[in-house]
Amino acid sequence: MRIKKRHQAGAAKNFITRTQAVKKLQLSLADFRRICIFKGIYPRAPRSAKKANKGSTAPTTFYYTKDIQYLLHEPVIQKFREHKIFARKLSRALGRGEVSDAKKLDDNRPRYTLDRIIKERYPTFLDAIRDLDDALSMLFLFAAMPATDRVSAKVTADAERLCNQWMAYVARERALRKVFVSIKGVYYEAEIKGQEVVWLVPFKFPQNIPADIDFRIMLTFLEFYVTLLQFVLFKLYIDAGLVYPPKIDSAKEQGVGGLSAYILESKREKELLVARGSTTTESSKAITESDMAARAKTISDAITTTQHDEDEAVYDDTDAAEEAKLDEFIAIPSTEANISDILPQPDEISAEDALKNLMAPFTIYVGREVPLDILEFTILSLGGRVVSEAALDLYAEDDDEGVVAERKIEIDDLVKGVTHQICDRPALSTRVPGRIYVQPQWVFDSLNKGRLMPVDEYAVGATLPPHLSPWGDVGGYDPENYEEDDEDEGDEESVDGEMDVDNDDDDEEVEEDVAVPVTVDDDDSGDEEEDEALAHQRELESEAKGISFSSSATSSSTNKKRKRSEPVKQSAAEKQAREEKELRKIMMSNKQKKLYNQMQYGINKKEQRKEVLKSKRRKIEKVKPLSNLNEADKKKSGKGKKNNKGKK
Amino acid sequence: MAKRKIPQKGQLSASRSVPNPLGNTSAPAAVRSPSPDSTDDVDVDNESSIENLFDEEAEEASDEEDEEDQGEDNFFNDDNDEDDEDDDEEDENSFFGIVDGGISDSGNESEVENVADITEIGSDDENIIEEFDGESDSEKEEESAEVIKNDEIDDDSDDEFLSKSESIADAESQTSVSDNDDGRIVHYTKGADGKPRPIYREIDPHYSSDDSDADDYNVIGNIPLSAYDEYPHIGYDINGKRIMRPAAGSALDTLLDSIDVPEGWTGLVDRESGGELKLTKEELELVKKIQLGQNAGEVNPYEDTVEWFTSKTEVMPLSSAPEPKRRFVPSKHEAKRVMKIVRAIREGRIVPNKPKARPEDDFKSYDIWADDLPEQAPHVMHIPAPKQAPPTNEESYNPPEEYLPTDEERKEWEETDPMDRERNFLPQKFSSLRAVKGYENFVRERFERSLDLYLAPRVRRNKLNIDPDSLLPKLPSPQDLRPFPIKCSVTYTGHKGRVRAISVDPSGLWLATGADDGTVRVWEVLSGREIWSVSLDASEPVQSLEWNPVKDCGLLAVAVGERIYICQPPLFDDATEATGQDMLAAGWGYAAQPTATEDENKEPLCKWIRPTSKIANVGVDVAIVCRKTVKQVTWHRRGDYFVGVSPEGANMAVLVHQLSKHSSQSPFRKSKGIIQRAQFHPFKPMLYVESQRYIRIYDLSTQTLSKILQPGARWLSSFDIHPQGDNVITGSYDKRLTWHDMDLSAKPYRTLRYHQRAVRDVRFHQRLPLFCSASDDGHINVFHGTVYDDLLKNPLLVPLKVLKGHAVVQSLGVLKVEWHPKEAWLFSAGADSTAKLWT
Asked: With contacts defined as CB-CB under 8 Å, which chain B residues touch A580?
């Protein structure tokens, strides 16, 4: 047998340090970084860093050797090398003042494409969609960034274009599932081809760009993401039967801009238009249903026109769905012996469809103080139509007075159909009758809840209910249902005097059912003798069934007690259970004990956090009634004032 | 024609040959005639060669003359008479052709004429060869003569040739004699081919014809020489005499020949090496050359000249072919291609000087996922980047108020290092959307995410997603294992110090306790009433006490300081008292008469004395004075023997006392460390002795050490033996309880650690499958411990209950526990100067 040498197999061979990798690839560190970003190659943490580093314990970055080996023949690396030479030539030409040579060189500079890499990294389309989160967040950030000396204008323009195309697609497909306005920005979640895509859009403020940020890294990522998104959008548009790239309404682009400037044409429609003849302009073609002026229409409802046929179809579907009432699947009441999963119940109308058409009947007027980009996108994806005050203002402006007058009429017609107005002001001086005035959060909460929220809570000037994350809380604390927990706990405290883990009532009831499967004691007035006899009988039966004496005994005894005072009994049983658990812990092995304690640590931490939140809430609740009263007083007085004003 | 020719030629030659001998050199033919074959005379030969040289031109001239002479008769005339050269060649041909055709006899002149008609024309090639021959001088001719000789020897088959040769010889002789030419041919006869054949005259072998030089001429003819191998001769000469074989080498010579001379052998000795001097072929050659005075180097002095730089300049090119046409006419193919481009430009397909489009400008999207690949499981080693956690309520612009940080939380967050913060933001509340500020760390967070994506080492961690309760061992419920003590029912109070010792009498009615205050008290178990009490020693604590296991004797052994007292509390009926007194009294007799074996000089191990009357009145009957403090007393099951343990006693730490004889003996000769406890086996003659680390088991019948248990604890405190004798539990000061299966190993079967402080005492129930441990943390843990008869089945240990009630005083909790002999009741003695009954 050959003597095995050390560090010739296993981790030492599977992992390679970064320095070794860079040497092997003969690249500069910057180029290595770029190729790693493009190819999605990342360092690994080997199980034993010492083994991987051939006995040294110095802190090192390890890569998987095969990853690096695959890189050896990467064409893009070759392009990097060519580019290095090109840069040298160019600088020489420039240094010598050979302008024409430099220009020629620059025209023929080595260029690389990332298509193949994208296909390699995402063999299927779903893979690509799954990895869109970071790409979108990065693109939206760059779309919101100003062009600086470090970020070229082209880059930001590209990012903005792609972001708008993405939003136009999501809005048209009504794929938006969640919105969450956080202090960092707005989180959206869309469901694309069954995959959940979450991205974060910053608020439209100038971004604070720290000096110590290396934009080269960000731009390398961006380069990859731009390419990726181009391919993804292309595929999405094609799959949806749309034309890619979508047309851009240049007038609107220069006006309000954003989403509304993108005209999505389905392929079918385009063919029709071609058949009709190309005399009419694109924008006027897009509007078919009303006799309003074409341009005003385009301004008002951004992309609604292309959605109209579809809307009707969807309505039909829902009707059909309503007609065909679905049977309910009732799970057989489970006993302890045969616990079955709760069957998923089909909804009468699928929640998704309901969500897609949540605001379909509404035309919503968005005030100029409200960030249009967020609301336009959200409302459109809920099927509503948007009339933007800012856009109308821009439209109404004109030098020619006649035109202005004409347009005013148009706008008036347009505004007639408005059902809701989104308003973000402390108070409103004038209100148009027939309109419902709400704050923007109404739209978000309605979307997250999947139903229209009561409007009065979101009225102008009202204190808004808290905006909760559709993804919930970290530790399982539910701020809406804290009170129920609270009550339970209060009872327990009164009995036991110590803080306990709260237990759901439902569980307890189930247990009861299970524990006494044979005879259910209906007769409350039975005397004790009878009870004893019954208990004995139960014991015998349970023994025959193989249920341990203890469980049946406790259950029977607890049953008795429950009649008297349920909480007391419950806590006693609980206490006993806890004690038993403690006792069982004695018999655990050391390893298990450690693991168990680790788990308990996490659980306890969560519980603790919950407790802290609850106690805070309780405190707030104690103060609240007073403040509520005060607020109510204020409101009343405010109303009174308004009334007075109105009277005046 | 041939007919006519032959005589002519013959005539001609004859006419020519005639004047030759006369020295007439005017005729060229005459010159030729004597030339080669008159081998006999060297002088003649030389002359003829010189003559030959002289007559080269003359010969030609003579040929011409011949032609003229012959005129139309010339055999070759029919072709071209005027072409002299040709004719001349022909002539030569005819001349040399003889050599060619009649292989052997080239030189004979007379023969030339004769055979000329037979061989008409030689081929050209032959001519050339012959030309060379012709030019060569007489030496060659001589050679050819020799060849002829050989031929004569070799082929005798051809008669004609043979005869010819004879005729040659004849001719020579004739020529040499010269007078009679015509006399040679006698007459012609008609040959087989119809041609005239000359019949020659018989040769007369007279003196002049004799060839004296060839007298020992071997005449064996065509017979190979090998036929004569076995004879001393090799043939016969013309005279029939044997030609003897030339002298061959002697036998020595043949031997020498047969020995292989090594290559390069010189027979010389190398002066330098002392070995043989060997010379290679080349070296020999060199030596030879040096000897001859020749150029020793390998230089060919006659090499051909090579004109490296030619002196001649060529006037004309290598080829004089005229320039081809295609070099002047424009190419049609090229014109075609050009026209193609021109057409493309005209049609606008090619736009010249078009500004080059930048590839990034016209980025073409296409469907790269067109080939719908089935989704494959990702590679094992691929770890996808973890997604960012979705935002929670805390991040909301309008969160519920409880999420807002208090001032302390805010301060704490600000003080912690950004790396260690749980969240990278503080929850904030804005009253409305318009009030929301921009988030200042947006770019940084994105950047950090990018860094994480490409720089953070990724590792796949398997998250254990199990219910923590599933880790708990499955055990039968304690409810099913009842009865066991659950609660404290009686507390025995009265002692003034820590209660260290406790014991229940075999009937289970009386409880005896001993405390640090030096008193022993006996209680009624159920009522908790103190029945009897005695103060044995005010300064020394009662270390241990135990009832005699014999049922009806009521004896209690108490260890206080260095003494062991045996007392009989006055609780029992007369019969009992009597038996007890009998047992005690029996010993006094033995104590009075010292045994013969006992060494007089040696101080006895213990003294059995009667106690002072003060305590004797109360019921203390015997006192045993030991040398060191006795920490424990324990009875043998028969009630006669008991063991006192005094840890400081070194080799006399364990003393076995016999009640019936009032004798004490020390079973061990050597100290085995600090002895903590000792106990008899429940039914075997065995003694278990607990030292600090080990439990040694001695067989008393054979007086040997049978086993050592190694609990693995640092300092054992107590142990107990299972009533069936196969299992032992130990408690240790390092908080452990171990269960030993004696059949299994010396190491514990289970080691349990659940007490917060040192374990003070462990105890088995004598009847029920129960055991317990008492600890300094004030808790008593009660266990169920079933031992199965089946050896393959491990004992079942189930923790049943933690009894809490004893207060911890000066970090001492429960010091001693004792089970009730029948019921599942537990007695405990605590440092809080109480004893308790748990039922």
From this structure: 477-478
**How far from B177 is each of B110, B145, B745, CA to CA, in Å?**
14, 20, 146
List of chain B residues with pLDDT < 70: 1-185, 207-216, 248-249, 317, 356-363, 591-602
Question: pLDDT at position B212, please?
Answer: 52
Q: Which residue has the tokens 């022909």?
A: B90
Evaluate whether A230 touches B367 at the Cβ level (below 8 Å).
no
Integer Cα distance of A56 and A40 in angstroms: 28
Query: Regarding beta strands A385-388 and A363-366, do their DSSP bridges make them parallel or antiparallel, or are they unpaired?
Result: parallel
Give residue-wise pLDDT tens across range B399-458: 999 999 999 999 999 999 988 998 889 999 998 998 999 999 999 999 999 999 999 999
Q: Express each pLDDT in A379-397 by its tens digit.
A: 999 998 888 888 888 877 7
What lies within 8 Å, CB to CB, of B513 at 6+ separation is B492, B495, B499, B501, B502, B503, B520, B521, B522, B523, B545, B829, B835
Query: Does the pLDDT value for residue A83 go beyond 60?
Result: yes
Nearest Cα residue to B139 out of B227, B63, B48: B48
At which residue do the structure tokens 């309505």 appear?
A315
ipTM of the complex: 0.78
Six token digits for residue A8: 């010739």
User: Chain A window 302-321: which residues touch B at a Cβ cutoff of 8 Å?
Assistant: none
Give the Cα separation of B369 and A125 in Å (integer). 6
Q: Tell me how far CA of residue B550 lies from CA of B503, B556, B588, B622, B662, in angstroms.
A: 14, 11, 20, 18, 18
For A:376-415, CB contacts with B below 8 A are none
Q: Which of A31, A117, A184, A551 to mutate to test the interface with B (most CBs of B within 10 A)?
A: A184
Q: What would the mean pLDDT of A434-448 be, rounded to a whole number?
A: 93
pLDDT at A20: 95
- Asked whether the beta carbons of residue A180 and residue B391 sit closer than 8 angstroms, the reply is yes
Q: Name the phi and psi angles at B829, rounded to 5.
A: -115, 130
Predicted confidence (pLDDT) per residue in A99-113, tens digit: 999 998 988 889 899
Res B669: pLDDT: 86
Report how many helices (DSSP H) and strands (DSSP E) chain B contains, helices first.
Answer: 16, 35
Nearest-angstrom CA–CA distance, A181 and B251:
130
If you search the block for the tokens 């055999």, which residue do you land on? B75
Contacts of residue B77, defined as CB under 8 A and 6 or more positions apart, other chains included, come to: none
Q: What is the pLDDT of residue B747?
A: 93
Task: Give the integer Cα–Cα distance in Å for B691 and B674.
Answer: 5
Whether A286 and A307 have beta carbons less than 8 Å apart is answered as: no
A34–chain B nearest CA distance, Å: 10
AA letter at A30: A
SS3 state at B424? coil
CA R_g for chain B: 75
pLDDT at residue A627 greater than cutoff 50: yes
Q: What is the pLDDT of residues A546-575, one digit of tens each?
A: 555 555 444 444 444 444 555 667 788 898
| Geometric angle at alpha carbon B785, from B780 and B786, rounded to 5° | 160
CA quadruple A173, A174, A180, A181: dihedral sign: positive
Q: Can you tell me the distance from the alpha carbon of B667 to that of B657, in angstroms, rounded to the nearest whole number?
A: 11
Helix (H/G/I), strand (E/B), else coil: B679: strand
Q: Which of B434, B447, B477 sits opposite A213 (nearest CB)?
A: B447
- What's the pLDDT score for residue B133? 42
CA angle, corner B681, sides to B679 and B685, nearest 5? 110
Sign of the four-CA dihedral A497, A502, A504, A508:
negative
DSSP per-residue letters across A65-118: HHHHHHHTT-HHHHHHHHHHHHHHHHHHHHHHT-HHHHHHHHHT------HHHH
Nearest partner of B434 among A418, A205, A180, judged by Cα: A205
Give me the residues paired with residue B783 across strands.
B771, B799
Which residue's structure tokens are 């109510």?
A: A632
Per-residue DSSP letter, B809: B
